[in-house]
Amino acid sequence: MRKILTLLLLLGSLFMPGLAQAQTTEPPVIRNEAIVDYPQSVRFQLEVDPAFNVVDAVLNYDVTQTACLDVSTQVPVDVAGSLIDWEWPMVRSGNPPPGAELWWEWTLTDDQGNTTTTPRQTLTFSDDRFDWQTVQEGNVTLHWYAGDEVGPLLLDAAVSGLALLEEDMGIELQEPVELYIYGRTEDMRDAVLYIQDWAGGVAFAEYNTILIGVVPSQAEGWGRDTVRHELAHLVVGQYGRSCVGGHRPTWLEEGLAMYAEGEPSEQVLSDLERSQENNDFAALRSLNGPFPAHGDAAGSAYSQSYSVIQFLQDEYGIKKLQDLLLLIAGGTGTDAALEQVYGFNVDGLESEWRVWRGLPARTYPPTPTPLAVEMIPTVVPFAGPQDYPTPLPIAEKGVEETAVPQPGNSICALGLIPLFALAFIAQKSQRTKI
Q1: Where are the domains of the chain?
Q2: In this structure, what is the dihedral angle of CA atoms 90, 207, 164, 326, given to the nearest 10 degrees?
Q3: pLDDT tens figures, 231-240
Q4: What is the DSSP-derived secondary structure letter of residue 422?
Q5: CA 77 and chain centroid, separation
Q6: Which of 202, 219, 224, 221 is CA-nearest to residue 211?
Q7: Nearest 10 degrees: CA dihedral of 369, 374, 376, 378?
Q8: pLDDT digits (tens, 9 = 90+) for 309-344
């Protein structure tokens, strides 16, 4: 019996090393790279030694971001020779912002059935059209290229805005933030696919990144306000992130962000005065989703949203706003949440607000008109539902762009607006109605 066992062990020692070697054989990689044409596409190329007969290849890649469920993309790629090639056309899905990190790896199978995975590679997306300068303080890093004083000036605006949130509201920035300040809004728009032609800035909450187009001559005024506005969106996203929450309507999201900027600007006052005189405020329900894509209409939508938030705070107080936000974050629809907290839906809110402003009543249909299927956008993979652009300081003329619905696999839904925003509103409760 002992001789038989010894013989089996000897035979095993002969065959096992070869088997282990066959299972772990790695192909000689000649080249493994990702060629970026930002923001249009990324081409992944893997070249292996022709002696390694690859019969199956799967590309696994993802962009590092904050998400409730980290799901990478796996793409089976046709193999024809030693060069394996696949292109990610970001024009179909939307692009990540500059500063986002891409990782990728290949899983290969040879004609003997051996499978191996290449070491993970990474790169950082960058907008190489410009010679960027960088300043940093604490968790805020700001990149810019136009105007010597623009970077330090807007970094100061960001840091002072964060200090206000931390000191007065007890909320701190939880993760580092990157700001990219473009010298022209056109330059900024060219870095983001499917952005409205009136957009002057956008916050990517999942990436903790803000892009803003700021003409150097406007950095002191509009630039500072916009940095604070977009930073508020980002802090809201970090602090109130929820994987089970609902979707706040745009008028609520943007109204709160504008209210957090401080006293209304001359532009906001002008928008409200003009719409008041012409009685041409948009139906509030139409502002549940994306704002208009034209300068004047977009500015009016932001100003109207500001006024609605001012009305809710002045007439009903901060506690009811808290309740409204919590209900929406928990998945309750906007109409149902308003009914539960205030006793009216979106149309009823508009009616009360119009009385508050001294406007004539508007006639509403008995039930809200549902959106047609073709009007409902698909989930955007890189820019979540909280990424609402900031309007331009001055209306610009241009060709209107139609946003292309983008398929995606982003699962995270942003939830609660933090109580700091409401505490900020409470401090301004004595503000004169406009």
Answers
A1: 24-124, 133-367+378-427
A2: 100
A3: 877 876 665 5
A4: H
A5: 29
A6: 202
A7: 170
A8: 999 989 998 778 878 877 887 888 899 999 999 999
Shortest CA distance to 251 belongs to which of 296, 214, 300, 203? 300
Confirm or reject CATH 2.60.40.10 for domain 24-124, answering yes or no.
yes
The CA distance from 324 to 226, in Å, is: 26
Distance of alpha carbon 69 from alpha carbon 237, whole angstroms: 16
Element (H, E) at 85: strand 83-89
Say which CATH topology domain 133-367+378-427 has. Neutral Protease; domain 2 (1.10.390)
Where does residue 280 rank: exposed (0-12), middle (13-18), buried (19+ CB within 10 A)? exposed
Q: Indicate the residue type of 434.
A: I
**CB within 8 Å of 160: residues ≥ 6 apart:** none
Global pTM value: 0.66
Smallest CA-to-CA distance from 35 within 104, 93, 91 is with 104
